Structure prediction request, 143 residues.
Amino acid sequence: MKTFHLKEDLKVFGFQAKTFPTGIGKAFDNLVKMLPEGLDRSYYGISYATQPGIVYLATAIENYAGEAEKYNCERYSISKGEYLVVTVRDWRNKTDSIKEVFQEIMQEDCPDKSSPCVEWYKDDNEMLCMVRIDESKRVSLAR
Prediction:
């Protein structure tokens, strides 16, 4: 497991998958088809737990101000900071195991369990599973 420093908040846009986990693929397919660049931009999955269950957001990086509104999508933000990261290669053939990757990350001593889990789809082969580090726990570990 590695760490990654996200230097600034990422502005992303998209929409919630109608069902989790079965609706994730369709949500991304719809998002990719909507955008003229297709796969030539970064895509992110953002998930977090709520009382009724997991909420999953299929999102794309916002390339310019007002792009979310142009496509009638919701705008979201991925917070800057330090993240615990696991790289998943050939992710399209491993979607059933992504849950276990995040469970492994959450077993570490310093994940911020109040922050969402982030999937960064860098390309068709490489995806990063990311969980923000709770800096207060990290400081206490360093002592």
